[in-house]
Design a protein that fits this description.
By secondary structure, the protein is mainly alpha-helical. Helices cover 59% and strands 11% of the residues.
Amino acid sequence: MTSIVDAIKALKADAEFVMSGEPSSEAEYKANVKYVSGADENGTAIFKDSQDFTWAEVSAKKAELQTEYDNNEYQRKRAAEYPAVVDQLDEIYHNGIDGWKTKIKAVKDKYPKS
């Protein structure tokens, strides 16, 4: 699952901002996301009068990231079921590459690429 934070960080990795909640509209974005321009002598954040990105840019990036996340679900499911590397090496040692391939293929077949 992706968030507005993920989208902003994907647009600019070192973006500094403060966010309240998870905005789901342009009005919420404008009201709840404040970008930092620096800090005063006490270290308190100074906020910009404008936003670094428009709602259209952020929401489009969020949708792009969510699509990528959804399209790679099979990878997350496979990773959870693959044996630990140590166990895979043990499988190769005891049953050869073909034995290892059989075990790995079962997981790949269970969770095919979309």
